[in-house]
Each structure stands twice: as structure tokens, then as C-alpha cells.
Amino acid sequence: MLKSVNCGELRAEHAGQTVTLAGWVHRRRDHGALIFLDLRDRSGIVQVTCDRVANEAAYAVLNAARSEYVVQVMGVVRLRPDGLANPNMPTGDVEVVAEAGQILNEARTPPFYINEDVELDEALRLKYRYLDLRRPAMQKNIILRHDVVHLIREFLSSRDFLEIETPMLIKTTPEGARDYVVPSRVHPGNFYALPQSPQQLKQLLMVAGYEKYFQIARCFRDEDLRADRQPEFTQLDLEMSFIDREDIISLLGELYTQIIEQLGSKPILQKPFPVLTYADAMDRFGSDKPDLRFGMEHVNLSDLLAGSAFGVFSGAVAGGGKVKGIVAPGCASYSRKDLDELAEVAKRAGAKGLVHIAYREDGPKSSAAKFLTESEIDALQQRLNAQTGDLALIVADADAMVVAKVLGELRVLLGRRLGLARKDVHALCWVVEFPLLEWSGEEGRWTAMHHPFTSAMDEDWDLLDSDPGKVRAKAYDIVMDGWEVGGGSIRIHQRHRQSQMFKALGIEAEEAEEKFGHLLEAFEYGAPPHGGIATGIDRTVAILAGIPSIREVIAFPKTASATDLMFRSPSEISERQLQELHLAIRKG
Q1: Percent of the chain as helix, strand, coil, to the nearest 5
Q2: Tell me: the pLDDT tens digits for 448-504?
Q3: Contact in structure between 349 and 341 (CB atoms under 8 Å)
Q4: 3-state secondary structure (DSSP) of residue 270
Q5: 478 closest CA partner among 299, 295, 283, 259
Q6: Do 40 and 55 contact (CB within 8 A), yes or no?
Q7: DSSP string, 352-387
Q8: Contact at 8 Å (CB) between 453 and 203?
Q9: Which of 176, 321, 421, 529 is most enclosed, with most CB atoms within 10 A?
């Protein structure tokens, strides 16, 4: 190799050794007859000194080096002179005195400084991603990602899991996000789909008798992007036979505990992770991915206001709904503009209105003061445990889910704005017993909340035909710091149950056979009870790194508009390629 040791590995115990280094010039400082180069490779940075008087030949070569030149240096490691050690560098006790050098490649001036940790335009960073990835902050993220995946592989392999690859070219099926499709040249007019996940494939592996499978799987979804989404992403995908929900919760709880404690920098708030039902999570936090690093739980006020003269409150309770509130600490001084902004957020989330009560030094002030009695306002303060200086926000609706979701939006907004979430811990929990189905007004039918292969709770199967909205699923999500980092379920493993599920989703028998016949037939050959989960590698690493966007932990991500600025893709293809694929482009 062109180097005998990595730059970041040198320490005081290496003093006196002759070494060969190779890397990039991170910084150059010229003191006339003495030059200093900070030489960088993946392992870190070390200082190189070159004295013209002591070694004119080496000086002549290295004096020509500039930032981002690739150089090789041969020299002797020595302790830095007294008082000149750098405690901020792992290699700060030593330097390498150059005896020979070689410029392996020159470099143009980069479009941004690689040796400075400054905010850069993301489009510029993505266009020159190969340069952006040189920056120490980005290398730290990519190395953390490797460490997470390495730990996962070791953890699961030690527990008798087999890592098995599944195809990237499969069949397009209904449900879920839009597929990315691939035209077939060999079969004109037919298309493959890139997998949104290996869901059916891992179930078939259970039918095949492998019992414990995992894969670091690439997945593809043609959907609108956000900070936590990409058109292609990576997940830990696993499946197990002869297990129940508690087995998955126990296994993943142990895995995530190891990931956080071995590779993270913050402790876990509560172990084992709390388990909340979907109904409980929505009732207390208005979200199926609650951030447990702060409180501001929803408080039920329905019994206090059922007989209120204020029809908004009493009418909601009479209609079978709820009146609930949250308390924003220290926000009693909010201006009219601030309150109007919160009201607008509530309306966008589905509320017909938002009632506020500011508990000020001079007494409570409320948008509904003329409709509420003094005793009601006092009772609300006591129930809400609101202190002087706090702001109570109250929502009422005949649909209890609307109340939950509105207050959930306000809780997240205020928690972020007020900095309520603890930054020194990670808070994880499980959310279980999701609804199996949700109604799609746009499609006019029931759709699967998780996916169509999720089993109903044993005691709820009879409701699937008579009252689908009340059926609970054997589904579970793992939540970390308010992000859903994984989800899974116990699967359907019997043909008649899977057919029953397809029927509830409005998938007729003929379509089910066309789209899922391979799976239905497999269930007739001794399919074992099984279940699994998929957790997002990108999201998990981003949370560990304390970064809000998963693009920062992916080597070559797409933009929010699903474009690659470096490769300039997607791009047009040639007319010849179109003809080979039996395709034509229709304009407009």
C-alpha cells in the first residue's frame, strides 16, 4: 500500500517511528522556511511539518501542495514541542517530520471549503456530493451508519437468523405507495416493479421453512418526499416463524438498546420501552408516534363541560364526542397574533375552533369567557393543573378522533417551539393494536392501515364482515423521539383468512388470484404462524446523529423533488432504447 499507517492513528507511543502517510491536504500553513500540512484520511488528521533547511528536497515537493491535493509523505513521528500540543485533536500530541514527499494528484479549488464546518447550500453539496462526503461531519455520519448495520448483522446472526437476499425485480401489486416500474424488453408490454418492501417474499421464506430471516433491504416508493423520506431507502427487514407479538417486541427492544448504548451518545429514558395501545396513544398524545421526551398530555374535560351553557362544549359531548385540552407552560402572555396562529393550525388539522384560557396574574382571560362560568374556568384550571402564567388550549368535537389529532398537532408544534423535549435522552416506545382498516373517502372503500397481510386480533375476526372499523390489528410500531422508526405485524398465514381480508378491502377473488395467487397457494402448503418487522436504517441513524434529515446519513441521496443533481437524473433515454423496450413517449 502507499501508506504504512493511517493519519488519525498516530499517538505519543509512535514517537520515533518512521511512517508513510497518504491522504488529502486539509490545511496548509506557510511560515517561510517552515510549512505545516494538516494531512487527512478517513481515520482523521495529523500535522506534518517540513523544514527547508533540514530537508530541501521534501520541502520543494510539499511546498507546492495546496488544499485537497493528494499527497504521500514519508517521515518520522515526534512529540510536539512543549506547549504546542493540540488537545482538540486525537493526534494532537505528535507531528510527522517530513523526509520525503510526493504529490499523487493535484486538485482544483473546490466549490466550497471542505475544512470548514459551515452551512452550505444543499443543492451545491448534492451536485458535488463526492466532495461533500469528504467533510469530517459527513464521514462521521456514514461511518456511524456502517457501525449500526454491522451491529445489526452481528446481533441477528448470533441469534440464529439467516441473511437472505430477495429480488429487486418483482410484480406490481395494489395497496401502498406507487410502484417504480421497469419495462421488460423480453416481454413487450409487461413490467416489473421495484419492491416497496420484501413483504411477500419474506412471508414465502417462512413458508419455505427458514424460520428466522433478515435482510438489509433496499426499498423503493414513488411518493412525495419529506425530510424523513427518499424514493429509495434502506430498512432492516426481518421475519420469524412460531412467534407472537411479544417475541418481536423483546427482540427489537434488545437490539435498539444495544444500538443506542453502544453507538449513541445519550441514555434511554425508560427500559424496557413502554407499550401503548393505539387508542391510548391517541387519547393521551393525539399521535401514533408520540414523543415521550416531554409531557403536555391531553386532559379529558368532557365530564366537566357536559352540562355547560356553552353549546360548543355540551353539544360535542351530547353528540358522542369529547372536550379535551392541553397546557402550554408559560404561554399566558401570548399575543393575539400568536393565538390566531394556533387557531389556524387547529383549523387546518380539522377543528371547528380553538378555545384558549390564559391564566394570568390578574386572573384568567379566555376567548370563551362570556360563555363559561367562573366556577367552570376554575374547575378547568384544577383539572388541567394549569399554573399562573400557563395557557390552556381546548378543542371540542363530536368526533373524538378529530379532537385527538388537533391537540396532537398543537402539542408537537408547542413542544418544538418551547423546547420541551429533553435533548439529553432517547425516548422509545411501542404502539400496538392499531385499527386493521381505515376508510378512504377518496376511494370509497376500506384500506389496510398497515398492509393487507396483517392479521386481525383473534377476538376481532368476526367483526371484519360486520363492523370493519372496530377490528384491531396484530400490528406494532416502534417509536423513537417522536419518529416512527419501524413497523410490523403478525401476519395472516391461512388462505381463508387472507381471502376474507382481501374481500374486506374490496379486492375481488379474481383480482386476488391475479395479484396474490402465489401467496394464497403457498398458504395451502403448511404455512407456519409468523410475523416480522421492518425498521428504517436511515431514520435510526439520523436520530442517533441528531440530524433532522435522512439525506445527511445517505451517501448519495435524491433531492426533495426526487432528482440526483450529481448524475443529473432522471434523464431522457435514446430513441433506440425506447424501441428496444417497445415504448413511446406521449407528450402532454
Answers
A1: 35, 25, 40
A2: 999 999 999 999 999 999 999 999 999 999 999 999 999 999 999 999 999 999 999
A3: no
A4: coil
A5: 259
A6: no
A7: S--EEEEEETTEEEETTGGGS-HHHHHHHHHHHTPP
A8: yes
A9: 321
Q: Tell me the three cell numbers of residue 311.
A: 353549546
Q: How confident is the model over 506-535, as pLDDT tens digits?
A: 999 999 999 899 999 999 999 999 999 999
What 3 state SS string does 94-138 have?
EEEEEEEEEEEECCCCCCCCCCCCCCCCHHHHHHCHHHHCCCHHH
In degrees rounded to 5, what are phi and psi of residue 203? Answer: -65, -40
pLDDT tens per residue across span 88-124: 999 999 999 999 999 999 999 999 999 988 889 999 9
Please name which of 411, 391, 453, 385 lies closest in space to residue 176, comparing C-alpha atoms: 453
Biggest CA pair distance of the chain: 94
Letter string b/e over residues 278-307, b meaning 16 or more CB atoms within 10 A of that residue's CB:
beebbbbbbbbbbbbbbebebbebbebbee
User: How confident is the model over 179-192, as pLDDT tens digits?
Assistant: 999 999 999 999 99
Q: Give the alpha-carbon dihedral of 119, 125, 128, 133, to 10 degrees.
A: 80
Q: Cis bond leading into 267, ω under 30°?
A: no
The three-state secondary structure class of 76 is strand
The whole-number pLDDT of residue 484 equals 96
Strands 44-51 and 94-105: parallel
Cell 517540513, residue? 50
Query: How far apart, in whole angstroms, are the C-alpha atoms of residue 462 and residue 25?
Result: 70
Q: 20: which 3 cell numbers?
A: 508513510
Nearest-5° angle of CA 373, CA 376, CA 382?
A: 145
Amino acid residing at 479: V
Nearest Cα neighbor of 393 from 299, 482, 295 is: 299
Task: Report whether 486 contacts 539 (CB < 8 A).
Answer: no
What pTM was estimated for this model as a whole? 0.93
Question: Per DSSP, what are the bridge partners of residue 216?
Answer: 236
- For 184-280, strand residue ranges (E) read 191-193, 212-220, 232-241, 275-277
